[in-house]
Design brief:
The chain is mainly α. 71% of the residues lie in helices and 0% in strands. The longest helix has 53 residues, at 22-74.
């Protein structure tokens, strides 16, 4: 990191460690654990929604196939012998 004039800042290695006390590390660690937990929950919900979506798509596909089959079964065959003119 550089100073205000673009010069590199000179710090002793020990001073940097003292800038962030142990309590702040613990608080950051706790926050990261909470964020990780929230992300895990979101991932689980996303997976569940994705599974439900696939079920819905498959159900929709089946319904469309059944509907088409019913339409084909209900449509009388057009035969030239059935016409009386």
């Amino acid at each position: 990191m550089s100073g205000p004039n673009g010069e590199p800042s000179v710090t002793a290695g020990r001073e940097e460690e003292e800038l962030v006390p142990e309590e702040e590390y613990a608080a950051l660690n706790l926050m990261l654990d909470q964020i990780n937990s929230c992300l895990d929950n979101l991932e689980e919900k996303n997976d569940a929604l994705n599974a439900k979506l696939h079920e819905l798509l498959e159900s929709n596909r089946q319904a469309r196939m059944e509907f088409r089959q019913q339409q084909m079964d209900a449509t009388p065959p057009t035969d030239s012998q059935d016409r009386s003119t």
